[in-house]
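Troubleshooting: if your tokenizer reports a length mismatch, compare your output against this known-good record of 354 residues.
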Amino acid sequence: MYSTCIFCHSPLGANEAVEAFPVGRRLAFDAAKGRLWAVCPGCGRWNLSPLETRWEAVEACERAFRGTRVRVSTENVGLARLAEGTELVRIGEPLRPEFAAWRYGDQLGARARKAWMRGIAVGGAGAAVVGTALVAGPVAMLALPALAVAAAALGRRSPSEPLLAGTSGAQRALRDNHGEPVLRPREMIAGARLRPEPLHGAPWWIEVTTAWWDHDNEAVLRERKQALVGDPALRVVSVLLARANAAGGSRREVQGAVRRIERAGDAERYFAAAEGEARKLGWGYQEVWNMPPEIRLALEMAAHEDAERRALDGELAELERQWRAAEEIAAIADPLATPPAVEERLQQMRRARR
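Known-good structure output:
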């Protein structure tokens, strides 16, 4: 069994996920045709495996691919990342992509526990100070804002004030569809509302309201509205919801958020459905950070899933191109080395799959 790339001679790496074929950190397989490749991490070429090493390995890859809940598929190619780091590229009829609740349960649960502990700590300190108010006088009442913060964290309420100001970091990270900063110096995001109707070919968009105090008259608050679609909209939503959901969520809320995305069909469709769900609950026409906790959590999950899916989709397009090139070589190479008995077995397996 080879361990280096036949094209560039770089090491192919090793994996512990496929015992019958421990070579390679990225494996590509076509169960219907009985083919297995080790993808070189250096040059990206697909190395066709010897026939005698494939049978058990292909079956193991198929089982592992179906067993993982972190995968994405196009019409011809599926990509999955296993827990120990091995990547599987599945050629053939795709499985329905699904990103399950376990991806978020631990993360959001940890946020909730941290917020709870912070609330207890701040609240306890504030209560101790307030307890001395009769002696210490008005200074002790400075603890009341801290108590309000603790109460908000314990209740997982979102803030109603603007969440993001025009810092240099925000100006670099958040860009509109023309590449210009969403936030200019001294501006803040005063509103961000999901719009479920299509715009510029996108199924949903977000209306962002930025505000700033008039330079000549600090008593006047100026505003401007922007319509963002695609990646710029996704980045703004991700940032705002990460802030709004800082207190995490309960197990029930996380499970409910996952069910909402599943009912919508996928992450992108949920962005178009979220405003309608909020209206049914009496929370419609709200800024994204003022939506009910379960919907906010679902939107944050959807933002992460959609961003990851876009990245994977771009990668899958390249993988499909590589597969077609490797398939041409495999179609020539396989018949040259296939004994009659093996070819007969292949035909039996193909007929059994129909």
